[in-house]
Amino acid sequence: MIRTRIYLTERQRRELADMATATGKKQSELIREAVDRLIEKESRAWREAVLQKTAGIWKDRTDLPDFDEIRSDWDRY
Description:
77 residues, 3 helices, elongated
């Protein structure tokens, strides 16, 4: 792990200390868990934004083959 220094408000520090006592976890562990949740949330939001931005980008293309026709060759009866 890499040591990182952060600044907390008095309220954040107090609440974090109370949570650590209540859960039996170290404050640093709680902070790492919170950072992991933030990263997961933001990366999911980023992926969704990219998908929304790229949805339908090929809809007006005329230089692509007819995919329905190509797929029909794959159908097995």
